[in-house]
Amino acid sequence: MKNLDKIIEYFPVVTFIDETLKIKVCSKEVQFCSIGIVGNKILFNYKFVSKQQMDKFHSEWIEKIKKEQSEKLKAKEFNQLKQKELDLEKENIKIGDVIVSTWGYDQTNVDMYQICEIKSKRILLKKIATKKVKNTEGFMCCDVIPDINNFLISKHENTEFWSLVKIIQSSNNKYFKFSGFASYEYVKIWNGLPQFCSWYA
Question: Environment class of residue 114 by beta-carbon count within 10 Å: exposed (0-12), middle (13-18) or buried (19+)?
Answer without folding.
Answer: buried
